[in-house]
Design a protein that fits this description.
It contains six helices and five strands. It is an alpha+beta fold and 177 residues long.
């Protein structure tokens, strides 16, 4: 899970706007979170290389053989699986719930080990003839790099959404709440 929290000067600025325009600020905060969630989906679907996240290394040849056509990120890239919720007035959480959060952690971890007898037997049963002696998955630092980039941009995202909602409500209603 990624948790973004307002701090320092950005918090003071956005707090003063929230006191004067509470409904508009709530809408802006939610819209910024929705935008961040969509960006995380994009990062996962494109296997990184966007929004400050380096490109992810490809699947191991065994993974490719066992799941032909599987896209990087799999279920973690499904936009219906990535959630967002407000934890406090200053904190927004974006990520995967419950068991998927553990999968997201494992997806990012490097893993190198000698193929066990059971793994070799399973692969042989699945039709793999050239079974490598070692399995190696490089690390995929998705969440940390995405979260660092998002933390830098978060106040500006909220401010931009506020300005958008503010000007829209002035045009529509002539007043902002």
């Amino acid at each position: 899970m990624i948790s973004v929290e307002l701090t320092g000067q950005s918090r003071a600025t956005l707090r003063s706007l929230e006191k004067r325009f509470p409904k508009t600020m709530r809408a802006a905060f939610g819209a910024a979170a929705k935008r961040a969630r969509k960006r995380l989906v994009k990062v996962m679907r494109q296997a990184g290389g966007v929004d400050g996240v380096r490109g992810m290394p490809p699947h191991h040849e065994i993974s490719t053989y066992l799941r032909p056509g599987q896209k990087m990120g799999g279920v973690l890239a499904d936009d219906r699986r990535i959630v967002m919720f407000k934890r406090s007035p200053d904190e927004q959480v974006i990520g995967w719930p419950d068991a998927l959060a553990k999968w997201a952690e494992k997806f990012q971890e490097a893993n190198t080990h000698a193929m066990t007898q059971g793994e070799r037997g399973y692969l042989h049963w699945r039709g793999v003839r050239d079974i490598p002696a070692m399995y190696s998955r490089p690390d995929r630092d998705v969440i940390n790099s995405f979260a660092e980039n998002l933390a830098r941009e978060w106040p500006d995202m909220v401010r931009a959404m506020f300005e958008r909602y503010y000007s829209s409500r002035i045009r529509k209603y002539g007043v902002v709440k």
